[in-house]
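Review the following:
>
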Amino acid sequence: MMLKNKRTPLESWQDSSVSPYIELKDVSKSYGSDLAIDNLSLSIYREEFFSLLGPSGCGKSTLLRVLAGFEKPSSGRVLLDGVDITHVPPFERPVNMMFQSYALFPHMTAEQNISYGLKQEGLPRDEIHYRVQEALELVQMSRFQRRKPHQLSGGQQQRIALARSLVKRPKLLLLDEPMAALDKKLREETQFELVSIQEEVGVTCLMVTHDQEEAMTMSTRMAVMDSGRIRQVATPSEIYEYPNSEYVAQFVGSINIFEGIVEEAGANHIKVFSEEAGSELYIDHSGEVPEGAQVKVAIRPEKVMMSQTPPDVEHNFTRGRVDDIAYFGDMSTYYIRLPSEKLVIATLPNLARLTERPITWEDEVYVFWRAENSIILTS
């Protein structure tokens, strides 16, 4: 009997037969001489939870407002489900936006806040009641429907704002820093709830955030923005493990970067001598990097190992002194100063109590890592 090969189904963005749900084509937006969005193109697919991540002033909120219709692009086109909506006013777009401040009407109850948009559309009373109750159940807020915003906690207000956004059944839900007003613990709980609701409803979401952890936790894919341009679009794991530039590598999480010269570029490996590291660095994947090229080798802190005795490795190790230790409860971050004055960061789990750990301040240690855990950055 012949066994059939099982293939992992393609994601929508990997399948050439699937058309994008949202398309931004060569979109630019200027405010006088200030270019907020610079000739940007982006495709987002149906039922994705897509995040725009970047520092303040990078253009992510402007891009969100262009999609909502609050801003008109200076050039380019915006398409939703194949329809050009570039010049369609906000109130005629099948798009809802959930603002950072939630923007709930203070004099209205939760139920009235949710029903407001449906009443403006002139829907029948029975239809409004049914959809509002459905939305309240979805966000588990039915028993709070008579309360006004000041009688609700921040997390409860966030759920009411989400219900108000979903009750109109938009094709696209835009989220502008939706959890910025919540404390850390509630924010973490709400992240999973929001993704669960999004999956249940099947709405396409585009979220703007500067919180890396939030984007990594919630997104199917994400785009890292810089100065009105997109530097990389990929899944969270791809962006973290395989950043395409030094900017993305340094913006998303912490990272160690060593400058060096390519000594050998083989079919399945690259050798780099780094004066900063004081050793030869071995990367066990190939790349289009010529010998003699100046490159940067990047290693995430959690991939760095540490010992007080020389490791049994030929490459990818160096020696230094523990300059500082940051204790975070479940893990500690060690800052190791090399003879070149380069600072190496190593993040290790706290498997033993603080008083039982063998490595402390001023200790001489070796740091090392596996060849598969480092990457070459050429830009």
Q: What stands out?
A: Residues 1-5 have pLDDT under 50 and may be disordered. The two ends are 51 Å apart (CA to CA). Residues 254-377 form a domain with the OB fold (Dihydrolipoamide Acetyltransferase, E2P) fold (CATH 2.40.50.100).
